[in-house]
Every structure is written in C-alpha cells, then in structure tokens.
C-alpha cells in the first residue's frame, strides 16, 4: 500500500522531471514569445485576423517537422522533404489547373505520389545499402527537376477555388489547415506511442541489433519510416497548396532547415530511437514566432535562418556535451549509463546508421 509520503515523493519527482523536460521549456518560450509580440504590437497580435494568419502558416512547418522526425527516429536523414513537398504541390496544382482534374482526385493523387516516393526511397536504401543521406540527396535533385518540369517559370494559380476556400476557412479564427496539422500530430502520436508498429520503429532506431534479435526487421522499419515521412510531406503539400495563392518552383525551397530544426529543438535525437511529437509541434510554433517577430520589427530575413541554425547547432552540441558528461560519470562509478532520450550524438555519429539496416 502506498503511503501519503510515498505518493507525495513520487508526485514531486514527476513534477521535477516535467519541469526539466524540453517540452515544458518550449511551452514557456512559446507563451513568453506570444506575450512579448502582443506587447510589441500593442495587442494587435492577439486580434482575430492576426491569430488566423499566424496559425494558417504554422500548419506546414508542423507537418514537415513531423515528417523529418519520423525519419530521424530510425536514424535516417531525409533531405528530400522540401523538394518532395514542392513537387507534390506543383503536381496537384497542374492537375487541377491544366488537366481539369477535380480537387479531391488531385489531392489524393498528390498525397499518394508523395507516399510512393517515400516508399521507393526506403526500398532503395535497404536494397543498395547506400547511406540514406546520399540517397535522399539524389532524390531531392530528381524532384527539383521534376518540379521545374511541372511548373516551369510560371505560377500555377488557376486551380480549385474550393481548395483555396478550404485553406482560408477558419471557424473561431482557427484555420482548418492548422486543425488538420494538429489532428495529424495526434494520430501520429497514438501510432508511435500505442501501436505495435510504432513501437517497432522506435526499437529499430534505438538499438538495431537488439531489435533484430527480437525478430524485428530493421529493413522494414526503414521502409515504413520513409513511407510515413512521404505521407506527411504529402499532407503538408496539401496545406501549402490550399493556403498559398498559387504554386511555383519555389514552393518547398525553404522547408529543409525548418524540417530539421523542429524535431531537433523539440528533443529528438539524431541517432534514432526517440520521438517528441509535442516538442516538435512547439518548436515549429517557436520558429513561427521568430518569423512573426522578423515581420513585426522589419528585420533582415537572413537573420531568421541564422538564428534558427544557431539554435539547432547549439542544441546538438549541448546534447553531445551532456552525453559525454554522463559517460564520464558512468565510468567514474564503474558502469556505462544508457544513452539519453534527447538529442545526443552529432550528425556525423548518426550517419553510419543512416544506411539500410542489416
């Protein structure tokens, strides 16, 4: 039977762990950033139109961050996120504007195409044993060419008005595209934390050898991770197409850095075996706040990428220093501590696991 003192001690320990978590830190940063922007804009930031615009353009960063997170959880690096999203958006726009394809069919075709590209990428990595970094770099180059072939130098804007209305719809100033992103994040969290297939993904990424000894095929998990990543990119392309006035060859060109920044800042390790859905969503929110601050104070856009890149590098280096400290502490006690769940190894340490599983 648990006594009152034991229950109080457990509660206090849980609260201490929560206060030290990355998610709690990001939540505090988000609330503080919103308050600061609200004060700087004399309350305009909290008005309906501003909230609607802010959340409307937050949906895509959330989804591409989740897409990269799924690849990272098995030790993969997906460099094709932006190119795949831009190519998918252009494909849907061309199908609707030039081919007269109904919006539901064009959207379904775009999402399925993105998922198929992810599937082929994963199969190619497993079949050839080539480093996933190299494979996704090649896929990115191919998709950039395909995107230019689809859109050329024009902006495709004559597609379905219904899809554009869907992108602008915002009941109670909550855009439907943002609610869609949150729903996708919730479903992904249930899959990763509760479903057997999701736990196998994390097991294969955290300890491939132990996973294989347990009967889990690491090759299948790599293919599944890239397929799921492609699906999420496809949904991101839908939200982008619905929110933007038109699509062209520049869509997706600035997605790569945010796709890595959101999960890494959110607490996902580069070596695999960990996910942080809520942390990734909050990190995307913080980056969107930085972009809103840039517009509010008329800052040079290059400073935004500089600041985000600096935060990403600081997070990775900090995680590496923390892990080194734990290893030294473990040796001092005659044992080796387990690897922390947060971002620890550097990108270079993750590359050996970025190829196909064995």
UniProtKB/TrEMBL annotation:
Mode of membrane association: Multi-pass membrane protein
Key words, A-Z: Cell inner membrane, Cell membrane, Membrane, Transmembrane, Transmembrane helix, Transport
Record field: compositional bias (Low complexity): 344-358
Pfam families in UniProt: BPD_transp_2 (PF02653)
CDD domains: TM_PBP1_transp_AraH_like
InterPro entries: ABC_transp_permease
Region (Disordered): 326-358
GO annotations of cellular component type: plasma membrane
Source domain of life: Bacteria
Listed transmembrane segments: 21-42, 54-72, 79-97, 103-126, 133-152, 172-193, 222-244, 264-290
Protein's job: Part of the ABC transporter complex LsrABCD involved in autoinducer 2 (AI-2) import. Probably responsible for the translocation of the substrate across the membrane.
Quaternary structure and partners: The complex is composed of two ATP-binding proteins (LsrA), two transmembrane proteins (LsrC and LsrD) and a solute-binding protein (LsrB).
The protein, known as: Autoinducer 2 import system permease protein LsrC
The species this protein was found in: Streptomyces corchorusii (Streptomyces chibaensis)
């Amino acid at each position: 039977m648990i006594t009152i003192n034991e229950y109080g001690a457990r509660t206090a320990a849980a609260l201490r762990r929560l206060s030290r978590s990355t998610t709690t830190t990001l939540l505090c940063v988000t609330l503080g950033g919103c308050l600061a922007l609200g004060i700087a804009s004399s309350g305009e930031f909290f008005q309906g139109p501003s909230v609607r615009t802010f959340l409307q353009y937050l949906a895509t960063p959330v989804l591409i961050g989740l897409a990269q997170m799924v690849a990272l959880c098995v030790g993969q690096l997906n460099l094709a996120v932006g190119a795949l999203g831009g190519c998918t958006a252009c494909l849907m726009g061309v199908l609707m504007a030039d081919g007269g394809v109904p919006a539901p069919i064009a959207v379904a075709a775009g999402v399925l195409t993105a998922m198929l590209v992810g599937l082929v990428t994963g199969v190619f990595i497993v079949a050839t044993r080539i480093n996933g970094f190299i494979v996704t770099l090649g896929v990115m180059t191919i998709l950039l060419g395909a995107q230019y072939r689809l859109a050329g130098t024009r902006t495709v804007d004559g597609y379905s008005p219904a899809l554009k209305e869907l992108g602008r719809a915002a009941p109670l100033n909550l855009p439907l595209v943002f609610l869609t992103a949150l729903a996708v994040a919730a479903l992904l969290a249930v899959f990763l934390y509760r479903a057997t297939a999701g736990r196998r993904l994390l097991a294969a990424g955290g300890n491939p050898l132990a996973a294989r000894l347990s009967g889990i095929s690491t090759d299948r998990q790599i293919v599944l991770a890239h397929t799921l990543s492609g699906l999420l990119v496809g949904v991101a392309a839908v939200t982008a197409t619905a929110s933007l006035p038109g699509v062209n060859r520049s869509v997706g060109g600035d997605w790569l850095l945010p796709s890595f920044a959101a999960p890494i800042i959110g607490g996902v390790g580069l070596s695999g075996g960990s996910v942080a859905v809520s942390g990734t969503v909050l990190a995307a929110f913080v980056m969107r706040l930085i972009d809103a601050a840039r517009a509010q104070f008329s800052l040079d856009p290059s400073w935004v990428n500089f600041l985000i890149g600096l935060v990403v590098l600081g997070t990775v280096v900090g995680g590496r220093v923390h892990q080194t400290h734990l290893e030294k502490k473990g040796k001092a006690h005659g044992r080796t501590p387990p690897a922390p769940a947060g971002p620890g190894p550097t990108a270079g340490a993750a590359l050996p696991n970025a190829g196909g599983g064995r």
